Amino acid sequence: MVAIAALATFAVATPGSGQGQGLLYSLFERYLDSLRQQTGIPGLSAVIVRDGQIGWERGFGQQDAERNVAATPDTPYPIGGLTQIVSAVLLGACTEQGVLNIDEPVVQWAPDFPAPSATVRHVLAHASAGAPAGQFQYDEARFAALTTVAQSCTSEPFRKAMAEDVLDRLGMADSVPGQDLGSEQSPARELFERPRLDRYAAVLERLALPYRVDRSGRATRNDQPANGLTAADGLVSTVRDLARFDRALDDGVLLLPQTLSVAWSPANFTGAPLPTGLGWFVQNYQGEKLIWQFSHIPDAYSALILKMPARRLTLIMLANSDGLSTGANLEQGDVTSSPFVKIFLRLFA
To answer: Which of 76, 84, 214, 253 is most deeply buried (CB count within 10 A of its CB)?
Structure first.
């Protein structure tokens, strides 16, 4: 870390922003691949977005180790929990249109929800625990209950709303609203016309294969069920497509600035701020706000997006093992526990 800090200081002091940034990207690339190999991740795709443009992107290792197919920035992965940030956009748009009050109880749309006092706002902040609700507890299963909320306010099936209002709108052509759309038996295929289904199938054919990594670092293929889509999980995407989503957020294409400001501020229900906003984690690092979300699909996939809004700087990483999140306890709300993030912050913050 001392060496990284010294090199980063040199890079920043190097005359010419292009030369300095190039050195930072080169250093980050070197340390990122080293961490990938240490954690046994077979394939990793990453991108850094700066000022709305991709400043750096790279694939490391293999998306398919058996056939030696390299991971690239266009490699599709199931992004698991990162689906939440896209769902939060759909719900945020509903509030802006005046068709959703997020302070209404979730049981209004999901009668079996286990916390009757929890509102949509509570669930967006992973704060539906306690009686009354308001205590933080990361729970993707409860977040998934927002699927019916979003479907109600958009007046169309949830995955179709995500496809049309986000993926198609932003040109996220390598993203698929549910891995099950690749199966001819999936009833959800009835929502889409044949050309779009064919495009989805082509994307899913390139999907990074999932791997379980044992303690010795040996990776074994570990196929997963072809899941559908909920507000909490199921989206398939690439780092380049997620960069488009990130740019649209920063440019105000998807949500108004005031809506994002609320989503990116710590929720507070009991007098103490939580580590979450609405659909995102929120924390400070040396006086700077970090906005982030992660995914952990055990023995299969992991993902992380980290935003530094004041710098218009974003890191997005997708992997075909759970190595980006295993052992970091990210569900507790501290992204700096990730060694991948530590390297990034030491270089770019």
So the answer is: 84
* Alpha-carbon distance values, 163 to 87, 143, 213, 236 (Å): 11, 19, 33, 11
Q: Report helix, strand or coil for 224.
A: coil
Beta-bridge partners for 44: 60, 319
Residue 261 has pLDDT above 50, yes or no: yes
Q: Supply the DSSP symbol for 212.
A: E
Burial class (CB in 10 A: 0-12, 13-18, 19+), 49: buried
* DSSP string over 251-291: TTSSS-HHHHHHHTS---SSSS--SB-SSSEEEEETTEEEE
| Pairwise CA distance, residues 292 & 313, whole Å | 12
Average pLDDT estimate for 178-184: 96
**CA within 13 Å, CB half, 145:** 25
pLDDT in tens, 87-127: 999 999 999 999 999 999 999 999 999 999 999 999 999 99
Which residues, at least 6 apart from 337, have a Cβ–Cβ distance to it below 8 Å? 328, 329, 330
| Eight-class DSSP state of 5 | H
What's residue 13's pLDDT? 45
Question: Top-level CATH class of 43-334?
Answer: alpha beta
Mean residue pLDDT across the chain: 94
Evaluate if residue 10 carries a pLDDT over 60. Answer: no
> CA–CA separation, 233 vs 161, rounded Å?
15
Q: Which residues of 186-208 are buried (b: 16+ CB within 10 A; e: fewer)?
A: bebbebbeeeebeebeebbeebb
Its pTM stands at 0.94
